[in-house]
Amino acid sequence: MKKTFILDTNVLLHDPRAMFSFEDNNVVIPIYVVEEIDNFKKELSELGRNARQVSRYLDNLREEGSLSTGVKLDTGGTLRVAVTARTLPPEITTDRGQDSRILAVALDLQEKLAGIEKIAFITQDTNLRIRADAIGIETESYEPDRIETDELYSGYSEIAVTGQQIDAFYTNNSLALPDPYYAPNQYLVLRDCDNPSHTALGRVDLRDRRVMPIPTLKHQAWGIRPRNKEQIFALDLLLDDSIKLVTLIGKAGTGKTLIAIAAGLQKVAEERVFQRLLVSRPIFPLGRDIGFLPGDIEEKLNPWMQPIFDNVEFLMGLTTKGQKTSRSYRELIDLNLMQIEPLTYIRGRSISSQFMIVDEAQNLTPHEVKTIISRAGEGTKIILTGDPYQIDNPYVDSTNNGLVHTMNRFKTERIAGHVRLEKGERSELAEIAANIL
Question: To the nearest 5 percent, what fractions of the chain are helix, strand and coil?
Answer without folding.
Answer: 35, 20, 45
